[in-house]
């Protein structure tokens, strides 16, 4: 969970810098990619956790 929060913070910071700084639009794109990858990883972790529950 700490890794998830760290990646979200990094994505937000990169996005803000990409929007504010002139000519650094690529940082916004990198921030969005990091955020999407973070949610994919979170989904994979939650998906694995649900399958282990006994019925």
From TrEMBL:
Keywords: Membrane, Transmembrane, Transmembrane helix. It comes from Streptomyces hirsutus. It comes from the Bacteria. This is DUF2207 domain-containing protein. The chain crosses the membrane at residues 25-46.
């Amino acid at each position: 969970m700490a890794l998830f929060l760290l990646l979200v913070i990094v994505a937000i910071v990169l996005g803000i810098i990409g929007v504010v700084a002139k000519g650094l639009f690529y940082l916004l794109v990198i921030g969005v990619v990091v955020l999407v990858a973070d949610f994919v990883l979170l989904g994979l972790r939650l998906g694995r956790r649900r399958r282990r529950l006994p019925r």
